[in-house]
Design goal:
It is elongated and about 55 Å long. The strands form five sheets. Strands 3, 4, 7, 8 and 9 form a five-stranded antiparallel β-sheet that branches. The longest helix is centred in the middle third of the chain and has 13 residues, at 175-187. 19% of the residues lie in helices and 20% in strands. It is of the alpha+beta class.
Length: 273
């Protein structure tokens, strides 16, 4: 499988062009609408149910909506939702954190501080939290665990009702803020990111529009996939590994790319990344 075939949402191809890839296996027509210009970009389907098309490189912050069989909705693989979970998606390129020499924290040494970004500082942002990380280190904290930072409805939330796996909650800041926060935490010997992948929150959950979903599980909107589709979707899903946020739009926290493998590694005395 090529690198492009393992990614979805918006990304830049090897020629620097903007590419959209949408998973909607039972749809008959998929179009990306570039709302800033009014242009429409028809997508072509492949045998696995992915739809894709490329265009000239779009500017950061450009807005888009995905139309599936006549219904428009945000891109569920969006990297940013500046106007909330119901608004248009925005082009955003995650930035890879650079932490030379970072090797994680041994579980036996971990003193974990679960951090709610909305209440940790008056500003409630990653940038403000970054300015106060040293206080946690002086307190004796060895692992800082921001609560889930993926996009959720409203402005303040614990993060467990998120509806976009790939989008950083806009109230927390942008990807440059997340990069600086990750690097600052690593420099102080601390890092861990809390994530949730086993359910969606009900508000702003447009996965059922893309389908196919189990009707009896409308709020959770779990996809019904063939083994081949499931394998392809898993390879395209957000990868957990060390280092912050990759150039491929992946928020990295735990080493290995597999939660079960990470838990096994920690049980064997592995390191928290």
């Amino acid at each position: 499988m090529s690198e492009a075939a393992s990614r979805f949402g918006h990304f830049h191809d090897e020629n620097g062009r903007s590419t959209f890839r949408v998973f909607a296996p039972e749809k008959h027509k998929v179009v990306v609408h570039l709302t800033d210009t009014g242009h429409a970009l028809p997508l072509a389907a492949d045998p696995l149910g992915y739809w894709h098309a490329s265009c000239i490189r779009l500017a950061e912050g450009s807005r888009d909506l995905v139309e599936l069989d006549g219904r428009r909705s945000p891109d569920i693989a969006s990297r940013r939702q500046p106007d909330g979970v119901h608004g248009a998606s925005a082009i955003a390129t995650p930035q890879r954190a650079s932490s030379p020499g970072w090797r994680g924290v041994r579980i036996e040494d971990a003193i974990i501080y679960e951090l709610h970004l909305g209440t940790f500082t008056p500003r409630g942002t990653l940038a403000a939290a970054c300015e106060n990380l040293r206080h946690l280190a002086e307190l004796g904290i060895t692992v800082v665990e921001p609560m889930p930072i993926a996009a959720f409805p409203g402005h303040r939330n614990w993060g467990y009702e998120r509806t976009y796996l790939f989008a950083l909650q806009a109230d927390n800041g942008d990807y440059s803020d997340l990069k600086r926060f990750t690097e600052a935490a690593h420099a102080l010997g601390m890092a861990l990111l809390d994530v949730v992948y086993n359910h969606f929150g009900p508000e702003g959950n447009y996965s059922r529009v893309y389908g196919p979903c189990n009707p009896a599980d409308a709020d959770g909107a779990q996809f019904r996939l063939s083994d081949t589709q499931r394998s392809a979707a898993c390879r395209a899903t957000l990868v957990l590994a060390s280092g912050g946020v990759s150039e491929r739009g992946e928020m990295h926290a735990l080493r290995g790319g597999n939660l079960s493998a990470c838990r096994s590694e920690v049980a064997r005395g592995g390191r928290i990344q």
